């Protein structure tokens, strides 16, 4: 895994972990994780393109 991806997903996971208890029960947290994961994976290629990677 390249450093940009590693830092990017570390930040995404850290924010999601911080927000998790505020989201609610297990089902809403899982749904939030799935949505954030899909969005994060969709944004990463554009972000890497802007950074020249």
Your description of this structure?
- The protein is an all-alpha fold.
- The chain has one domain (3-52).
- The protein is built from two helices and no strands.
- The protein has helices spanning 3-23, 26-50.
- Helix 1 (3-23) packs antiparallel against helix 2.
- The chain is elongated.
- The two termini are 13 Å apart.
- The chain crosses the membrane at residues 6-23, 30-47.
- Keywords: Membrane, Transmembrane, Transmembrane helix.
List the helices and strands and how they pair.
Layout: H1 3-23, H2 26-50
Helix pairs in contact: 1-2
Transmembrane segments: 6-23, 30-47
Keywords: Membrane, Transmembrane, Transmembrane helix
Largest sheet: none
Number of distinct helices: 2
Radius of gyration: 13 Å
- The overall number of domains is 1
How helix-rich are the residues, as a percent range? over 70%
Structural class by secondary-structure content: mainly alpha
Tell me the fraction of residues in β-strands, as a range.
under 5%
End-to-end span in angstroms? 13 Å
Question: How many strand segments?
Answer: 0
Order of helices and strands: HH
Shape: elongated
| Uncertain residue ranges | none
- What do the pLDDT scores average to? 90
